[in-house]
Amino acid sequence: MIAYATTRHAAVAMTRQMAADCGHENNALCPGFIDTPFNAGFERQMRGRVGLQRDIAEAIPMRRFGTVEEIAEALVYLASDRSAFMTGHALAIDGGECL
Predict the structure, then answer these.
(1) 99 in a domain, yes or no?
(2) 88: alpha, beta or left? (left if phi > 0; alpha if psi -120 to 50)
(3) H or E stretch including 92?
(4) Which residue among the candidates 4, 21, 37, 84 is catalytic per the annotation?
(5) What confidence tens digit (pLDDT) does each residue in 87-99 have?
(6) How many domains does the chain have?
(7) Mean pLDDT throughout 19-32?
(8) What is the DSSP letter of 36?
(9) Residue 47, in any domain of the structure
(10) 3-class DSSP state for residue 62?
(11) Which residues pair with 66 in a beta bridge?
(12) What is the domain-level CATH number for residue 11?
């Protein structure tokens, strides 16, 4: 977990520094627990999908996985002119996990 946390924080710091240096749109998308095939390993660790869903419900205020579509909507926003005055931001789409 230390490698993941260190890498994620480094990506956020790099995004902020690039925004400060370049002054134009440099943002990061920070997805939370998204329902994808990547979760198969976690399901095995939690002894099945039900166990993983129970763990997610306890750890995430919205009490569910995010969806690929929810992440796609955030990416569309960041790629659009609607985010034109936004820079150096780490947009967390994580159901409140980072609270």
Answers:
(1) no
(2) left
(3) strand 90-93
(4) 4
(5) 999 999 999 988 8
(6) 1
(7) 89
(8) S
(9) yes
(10) coil
(11) 34
(12) 3.40.50.720
Q: Which domain holds residue 28?
A: 2-93
Q: Which tokens sit at 39?
A: 């979760």
Q: Let me know if residue 51 belongs to a domain.
A: yes
77 counts as catalytic: no
Distance CA 42, CA 52 (A): 7
Q: Look at the pTM and tell me if it is higher than 0.90.
A: no
Q: Is the separation of the CB atoms in 15 and 90 below 8 Å?
A: yes
**How does pLDDT run across 39-70, given as a tens digit for each residue?**
888 888 888 888 889 989 999 999 999 999 99
Residue carrying structure tokens 């780490």? 90
Query: What does the block give as tokens for 1?
Result: 């977990």
Under the banding of pLDDT at 50, 70 and 90, the label for residue 1 is: low
Tokens of 2: 């230390």
Residue 98 lies in a domain: no
